[in-house]
Amino acid sequence: MGLGVDWAVGWLKLSAEAMAEHRTELIELDRAIGDSDHGENMDRGFQAVLQKLDESPPETPGAALKAAAMALMSKVGGAAGPLYGTAYLRAATALGDATDLDAAAVLSALVAARDGVVARGKAEPGDKTMIDAWTPAVEAALKVADDGGDALAALEAAAEAAESGAVATEPLVARKGRASYLGERSAGHRDPGAQSTALLLRAAAAAAAASGGTAA
After folding, report:
1. For the stretch 119-144, what's the b/e string if a residue is b when 16 or more beta carbons lie within 10 angstroms of its beta carbon?
2. Hey, is 85 helix, strand or coil?
3. How many whole angstroms separate alpha carbon 179 and alpha carbon 134?
4. All residues at 6 or more sequence positions from 193 whose CB lies less than 8 Å from its CB, including other chains
């Protein structure tokens, strides 16, 4: 069996827990190079996601991610709402009505999410944005899928790569977003969007482990 709607709902619930737990950390990261509101926005946004899931329980992973997209777009301010909203919406579209996701399906969702963020934010790897976490995550998941690994292995690889990617933003000089206004002064600080991406993908892997995410 692959990953089903229980995984997707579990992912979003663990994401809400992560945003609440790391709210202050994300605020501090954003205070250094942004508007200081990333942690608050992400926490509020995922509380809205939980409410959306309670009001209308989804029947497929895609439906769960679409519900998350709608909640984030309506409740999260700044750049994060449109970017993450687009990511989840593109991922939902890639999954369609599928109910049982293998590594290839998980990869397609991650690719779609990353490409949605790129299309919306126009950032590239090295710009010191969440793309510096998303891109290595996609590449790691692709390798697992190509090697015949299962959905859980793909998500664990993606999470680990995203975490490394977030750390790797620290010495970079920002070329996109509000942090770019700081120029060289943006170096030495981790990008908050890359960090929240890493937290969300770790939540996806943890939810897969809890649901026994082997390939279909």
Report:
1. ebbebebebbbbbbbbbbbbbbbbeb
2. helix
3. 18
4. 38, 79, 80, 83, 129, 130, 133, 177
Nearest-angstrom CA–CA distance, 138 and 188: 25
Tokens encoding 68: 């998350």
CA dihedral 39, 184, 166, 147 (to 10 degrees): 150
pTM of the model: 0.95
- Distant-in-sequence, close-in-space partners of 118: CB < 8 Å, separation ≥ 6: 124, 131
Around Cβ 104, how many Cβ atoms within 10 Å?
17
Angstrom distance (rounded) from CA 58 to CA 117: 24
Look-up of token digits 């664990």: 156
In angstroms, rounded to a whole number, what is the distance separating the alpha carbons of residues 185 and 166? 18
pLDDT tens sequence for the chain (216 residues)? 689 999 999 999 999 999 999 999 999 999 998 889 999 999 999 999 999 999 999 999 999 999 999 999 998 877 889 999 999 999 999 999 999 999 999 999 999 999 999 999 999 999 999 999 999 999 999 999 999 999 999 999 999 999 999 999 999 989 887 788 788 888 999 999 999 999 999 999 999 999 875 433
* DSSP label of 173: P
150 CB-side CA count, 13 A: 14
